[in-house]
Amino acid sequence: MSKPTARPKPIVLIVDDMPDSIAILSSCLEDEYQLLAASNGHTALKLANEYLPDLILLDVIMPELDGYSVCAQLKANPDTAKIPLIFVTALLSAADEERGFAAGAVDYVNKPISRAILRARVRAHIAQNKMHHELLAFTEELEQKEQDAEKAQRLLNAVLDAIPIRVFWKDPDSRYIGCNRHFANDNGVSSSEEIIGRTDFELMPERANALQAFAQTVIRTGQSLLNQEGAITTHDGKLTHISLNHVPLLESDGSVIGIVGAYEDITQRKHTFDALQDAKLKLETKLEEIVSLQEKLLEAALRDPLTGLYNRRYLAETLDIMLAQATRNQMPLSAVMIDIDHFKVVNDTYGHPAGDEVLKCLARFLSSQARTSDIVCRLGGEEFLILMMGASAENARIKIDKYREDFSKITIRHQNSAIKITFSAGVAVYPDHTESSKKLLEYADLALYAAKHNGRNRVSIFN
């Protein structure tokens, strides 16, 4: 159990089997502290665990659990072990005091109680305990900041070592105070520590004067020098073309305390510029192909693979947009849920390939009848949905009833079988029935259920 972070008053737990003693102690402390009282050791342990008081005043002589036993249990519990505990007792011998301090008490208050002494000692130990917790918190915060700083330094070093660019930083006298591994390697050493304290005259004397001039200009003006192209000779004698940047290293008050430099090897760039241009053109062509492929994949992801109609995912992405459009144009939007009657019988009688042919036939039929503004979806199984912008409930019912009648006259040929099939439909309308996209589909489904319940091969409007 964690200790509360903020309390109006420090909490003091008084433990004594004598009510008069509790009353006396309470009268001494009630104006400064929030008080808890326990008349036995068991209750004291329970209250200590529940409230985690800032200090405990504990009587030594009590029935069942005496003060020493209660103290031992408190100190054995990590949650209560750090609570300062003062024994309140009439026992005055040195042995008794030694035993109490050995058990973990921080002080003794002798009976009869001196109000001034009690208040002074309670104040002192609560203040000391508060300072102790604040010190612990400060120490933990400091340790965490040190760990964070070390972690940040390790991360920075890892990042600097991972990038192919050579990075370094210098003090105002142009002495190196740090670099990444690549810069160290260019100068013939394996670690950045071997670079620290050295100058350009030691590392690259042929370029030292120019580099010193760059550094001093940045330090004097506080302005960056970017994209300074030149050539250096690495430790193995290789002539390397570089693009060099110098930026000022600033103190919090804006004063320049050094420079940060970085360069990259542009030798290959100079030799392969034309090849890169060609690669750029190829990349642009490839990107166009990828974009085209992504568009095709997206279209495929929004289409039912069997019927080619839009699928449930497309419906989820489109319905709210259509509702917003209907609201903006102040027109209704009808949702028509369609389900093939006795579709399981088709599958059981003629086989699943025949069932697939029925689904495709209905999909083609609905697509051919729908307006360009209508959205026709297959939701799964034998269930379809049409969204009809601008259609009232009655208009949608009349139109879908005509679809139903025309489709019932179609004979579907599959192998040697001639299949005739019907469908049922349910209509729900935004905003007449609901303004919720989820409820709109639910109500259309309920209307479909009513149509099927009332005999199938019919169209019902949600009621």
TrEMBL record:
Coiled coil: 135-162, 276-303
Limits of the GGDEF domain: 331-463
Residues in PAC domain copies: 226-278
Annotated ranges, domain Response regulatory: 11-126
EC number(s) given by UniProt: 2.7.7.65
GO molecular function terms attached to this record: diguanylate cyclase activity
Enzyme class: transferase
InterPro entries with a match to the protein in the record: CheY-like_superfamily, Diguanylate_Cyclase, GGDEF_dom, Nucleotide_cyclase, PAS, PAS-assoc_C, PAS-like_dom_sf, PAS_4
TM ranges: none
Gene Ontology cellular component list: plasma membrane
Taxonomic superkingdom: Bacteria
Modified residue annotations for 4-aspartylphosphate: 59
Gene Ontology biological process terms in this record: cell adhesion involved in single-species biofilm formation; negative regulation of bacterial-type flagellum-dependent cell motility; phosphorelay signal transduction system
Catalytic activity annotation: 2 GTP = 3',3'-c-di-GMP + 2 diphosphate
Keyword terms of this UniProt record: Coiled coil, Phosphoprotein
Name this protein carries in UniProt: diguanylate cyclase
Name of the gene this protein is made from: pleD_11
